[in-house]
Amino acid sequence: AQTVTQSQPEMSVQEAETVTLSCTYDTSESNYYLFWYKQPPSRQMILVIRQEAYKQQNATENRFSVNFQKAAKSFSLKISDSQLGDTAMYFCAFSLNQAGTALIFGKGTTLSVSS
Amino acid sequence: NAGVMQNPRHLVRRRGQEARLRCSPMKGHSHVYWYRQLPEEGLKFMVYLQKENIIDESGMPKERFSAEFPKEGPSILRIQQVVRGDSAAYFCASSRLAGQEELFFGEGSRLTVL
Q1: Cβ contacts of A52 on chain B, cutoff 8 Å
Q2: Is the peptide bond preceding residue B25 cis, with omega within 30 degrees of 0?
């Protein structure tokens, strides 16, 4: 069975600084997808960034980038130039490349950005 | 293009009552997923449905919980004889394709059992 672990329940960062959220996962599969979702206080989950396991290049989306280490089964999220609006809970999620497979989520990391 | 619509946003039930949560997927999406989020926890998968079919219900409690996605109308998550432990936020998500596609989430339905 696949598992996703986020070892940092809470993180805090000052505006304009950089913060890295950790995520590790466990799977015996070689082909899969990884996601970071953001859940702001309004509660609606929003996709931040995704990574296909077969791609070696780390995904980047504006101020958000990932450090994907397939051998180590690590998928960390880096947020550069943090903004107050980045305050949210961040969930790492895993999906097998199979039709009908649901996302498996970690427990989340609460990120607080202060001015 | 409206997003995933869930209602009600908040629902209060007394122990023993029934709760019905509705989810209308995004236009063009035929895959619906229900997740439950307990306080201070991540989302736990409950059930995956396509129109008129339950594809994967491995995350559903064996008793009192059921889900459907009829040919017409929204997907419904039904909880019979609710207990306090059912208090949680229930999220619906939809996708156009399964597996590698991004899930689009609704805003969730918060169930409180008194």
Answers
A1: 100
A2: no
CA distance B78 to B64: 8
Question: Per this entry, what is the length of chain B?
Answer: 114
Mean pLDDT, residues B39-68 taken together: 90
| Tens digit of each residue's pLDDT (9 = 90 or more) over A39-65 | 988 778 888 999 989 888 999 999 999
Tell me which residue in B33, B59, B89 faces A43 most closely, judged by beta carbons: B89
Q: Which residues of A are less than 8 Å from B103 in CB distance?
A: 45, 47, 103
Nearest CA-CA distance, residue A38 and chain B, Å = 11
**Residue A100: left (phi > 0), alpha (psi -120 to 50), or beta?**
left
**How many helices and strands in chain B, by DSSP H and E?**
0, 11
The whole-number average pLDDT for the span B26-50 is 89
Q: Which residues of A touch B89 (CB under 8 A)?
A: 43
Contact between B5 and B23 (Cβ < 8 Å) = yes
Q: Which of A4, A102, A108 sits opposite B48 (nearest CB)?
A: A102
pLDDT at B80 over 90: yes
Give the three-class secondary structure for B60: coil
Residue bearing tokens 């082909």: A31
Tell me the shortest Cα–Cα distance from A16 to chain B, in angstroms: 27
Mutate to test the interface with A, among B54, B94, B103, B109 (most CBs of A within 10 A): B103
The conformation of residue A63, written as its DSSP 8-state character, comes to: T
CA angle B6, B12, B16 (to 5 degrees): 115
